[in-house]
Amino acid sequence: MKPRSRASLIMRLVLTGMPAIAAAQSGATYKIVDTGQTKFYNNTSEITKPEAGQPFYGQDAHYTGNTPSYTDNRDGTVTDLGTGLMWQKSPDTDGNGIINYADKLYFDEALARASSLRLAGYNDWRLPTIKELYSLIMFSGMDVSPEATSTEGIVPFIDTRYFAFGYGDLSAGERIIDAQFATSTIYVSRTMDGNRTMFGVNFADGRIKGYPADQAIGKKYYVLYVRGNPAYGNNLFVDNGDGTITDHATGLMWTKNDNGAGVSWESALSYAEGFSHGGYTDWRLPNAKELQSIVDYTRSPATTNSAAINAMFNCTPIRNEAGEADYPWYWSSTTHLQGPTNGASAAYVSFGRTMGYMQGRWIDVHGAGAQRSDPKAGNPADFPFGRGPQGDAIRIMNYVRVVRNAVALRPAPPQLRRADPVVNGATFAQGMSPGAFISIFGEDLAPVTRSWDGAIQGAALPAQLEGVSVTVGGRAAYLAYLSPAQLNVLLPTADMTGSAEVRVTTAQGSASAAAVIQRYAPGFFPSSLDSRYAAATHADNVPVAKVGQRPGVTSRPAEPGEEIVLWGTGFGPTGEQVPSGQVLTRPYPLADPAGLKVSIGGRDARVTFAGVTLAGVCQINVVVPPELVDGDQVVLAEIGGARTQSSVFIAVQRPPY
């Protein structure tokens, strides 16, 4: 296998394998994580980005919130650095490595099990609230049909780079769509003519619905337990006395009144963008997660004679499909994908009963506070008995409540975090070497979130990006990725070791930290498909991972005896020095390739090539030991007395897969 140079790979490794962390709004204690929606849609399909004044301007992808910020703690837990919540990584309750029906629990079982869970040395785990669990939803996912029999091409509504995920278990008589996750939030009313109801999140179809909470009904759920920040999801509303309400927990300002009438999704976007009130003109239609943040799950039409929202807000009364006094559903700016390009539906949040047609009549099937989706356009009369297994009512003409950012990001000097502000860009631990990637963590490190994509001039990598620069030992470093909370930086290739000052400079000031540069500080990049695994590829560039490791992405395990490529950084000097800060056009073999030892599953793996083929990235071609058994195998490398991290794997399996 020959050395390769592929610009797309380095972007995948640096921007996807390394965590991308962005700062949340200043002063906010209930930080709403962004939906992850980056594409634009009209009433049917994906479109090019609309500009201000054009139809469909103001949708989710026009406004970026708090970028998801996860760290895999490599102990079965994942920390969300934005929300302060620590999560169980996998719903694999029985620990056999397979996520299926056997892992599911009844609601009362899930609630009780939290008190006995001991994970990563912690004993304060709890079943998450609906607002905690919904913080994980990602609207880059695609809805799955209730009739689907395959997960091919389907993307779930959760980040599977960090969280393990399983669809419904067909072998147990479930549907693929049956990936409902339990929460501790019980509906204060009843659904389905009297069922005790739990609000859950379905990461297969991207919805919040009310599900049966009583074991007698026979419904089981996947579970992800959580700990930390018990105040997450608590609002701090203040009525400003001018028709606006500020939530000081989220940093968002809302209108006290809604728009007073049901409108199409396109009209909702237009209404919000043209809205002016209280001296502000920067109102917008909220995304699904922002809108869900103001649901009050202690209120409902049946129990408090109100909408499921704080009494400070006004909701226009309506008559629902059953003729009952009720309250509206509200549009979000978030498209609810039903396929890679099918953007015909948008997410809404129900502040009144969530109606469905069952057993010949209209009833509350999913509860006030559910999040479902409606067609963006069309005629509600075309759905006289709703749609789907529960006969979900289709209204199309939904209401609008607009939002704006009450707490603006104020320019401030950069601050580096106290503990380990500068770490190896592959291992996220101490250790850095010339010409390798590092990550820098802190606050106000950059004004925006972006990569060096589009900023590379000719062969020169950018030493300054959006007014941000970094020096190491007084030498310019190169910015691959920046966000308010994290910088991914390529060190210069100059021969320097020992103590060095790492300094971040922005338009508002600078901050520095001491670091130690070593000749060797090797690490394997984590795979963008699952951070438990090392970034590795086959000869045909297909990622090395289990088949179906990430839905929608082609991957396959390594075969014993096969030559694969491992990707890392910090493996030491090359025979000929790599040009500093330049796009590479040829490989640079390591100065001491014979000194590099690689093992897989505890067995020596023969190295056929080792060298820098992309700026900051070392390519290591190895032959998987032929005697290995199938399964996840630890991969280790040692050079110059320094070792890579000891907790990454590659998937090994003989065909058939």
What would your notes on this structure say?
The chain is mainly beta. It folds into three domains: 7-21 and 413-517, Immunoglobulin-like; 31-408, no CATH class; 523-652, Sandwich (Immunoglobulin-like). It is 6% helix and 27% strand. The protein is built from six helices and 41 strands. The strands form ten sheets. Strands 32, 33, 34, 35, 36, 37, 38, 39, 40 and 41 form a ten-stranded antiparallel β-sheet that branches. Strand 17 and strand 18 form a beta hairpin. The longest helix is centred in the first third of the chain and has 11 residues, at 7-17. The two termini are 23 Å apart. Residues 5-27 have low confidence and may be disordered.
What topology emerges from the helices and strands here?
Blueprint: H1 7-17, E1 40-41, E2 46-47, E3 70-72, E4 77-80, E5 85-88, H2 107-113, H3 130-134, E6 180-181, E7 197-202, E8 207-212, E9 226-227, E10 237-239, E11 244-247, E12 252-255, H4 265-273, H5 288-292, H6 301-304, E13 318-319, E14 325-326, E15 329-335, E16 345-350, E17 355-358, E18 361-364, E19 371-375, E20 403-405, E21 415-416, E22 422-424, E23 437-443, E24 450-451, E25 464-465, E26 468-472, E27 475-476, E28 478-482, E29 486-490, E30 498-506, E31 509-517, E32 523-524, E33 536-537, E34 563-569, E35 588-589, E36 597-600, E37 603-614, E38 617-623, E39 631-639, E40 642-643, E41 649-652
The DSSP helix count reads: 6
**What sort of overall outline do the alpha carbons produce when their principal axes are compared?**
globular
Distance between the termini: 23 Å
The helicity comes to under 10%
Mean pLDDT: 92
Number of E-type strands: 41
Q: Which sheet architecture does the biggest sheet show?
A: 10 strands, antiparallel
Q: In terms of per-residue confidence, which ranges show pLDDT below 50 for 5 or more consecutive residues? A: 5-27
Structural class: mainly beta
Strand content: 25-35%
Structural domain count:
3
Q: Radius of gyration, rounded?
A: 26 Å
